[in-house]
Amino acid sequence: MCMQSDGSFKLSCYVNSDFGGPFRSKDPGNPVSVKPRTGYLIKFGSVPILWLSKLETQIALSPSTEEYTVLSQSKHDLIPRWEKVQEIYIKVLKKDYPKMFGLTPKCCL
């Protein structure tokens, strides 16, 4: 696998959840078949640096609940990496790093 960066210091995160996705494909009587699958991808520039896909341990009450759950999980991996990228950007390029969603990391925690 060969990956080539686009040269940017952009850190991006994509999240997704599948609310009860395997319900029709497996045994409907099995409680595991109604558990949602969640996942997220964190990219630095154009290169994926972390990705996760897993079957959740609890049954979700709604699709929006699952979206918020996976968003919260991704935040725990994204914020520390964002702080490292910001530190490298400031030390290498001697410029301020753009704020994430218009907020500083301390406001996001």
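That was protein one. Protein two is written in the same sequence-then-structure order:
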Amino acid sequence: MRRRARGNAVLETALFIPVLLLLIVGIVQLGKVTYTYYTIKKILYAAARDLAVQQGINFCDPAEDPTAQAAMNFALNDPASGQPIIANLTALQVTTECTDPNNPGGAMVPCDTSNCGGLTVAARPDFLQVSIPSGYPIEVRLPFLNPIPITFNPTVTVPFEGVS
């Protein structure tokens, strides 16, 4: 009787190892995704806070403003090495939000930039919103499955405290 039961432990181990491997790799991939999302949110927040306290930023075209570009480069790149903190994350989008004067509830609307150009400048925004223009793609790799593509579209909104 004891002789027939010897192979059960080997069989149970052989069946359980793929499940255990999938569980361990899944936990590692979940950690990778969580860490990447957290790092992206911190990059966006650093850029937003740096822009929010600057003086004289051109919100008509923040992509051409050297102060805005310096703030975004500071957030995107490691100060010690100058290398990107996250690979393939090279561009951030800055939009402005103003309080709607027609809505007493304080709803936020995109700031009017129709007077931009020439000598006029955009109105002073109440909030700055920093995001990634087309999102940040990441692939989750699990054993026995095709890579699962995920696109992060985080956005950070901070109050504007500077002078435009």
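Residues 6-52 form the longest helix (47 residues). Keep this in mind for the problem set.
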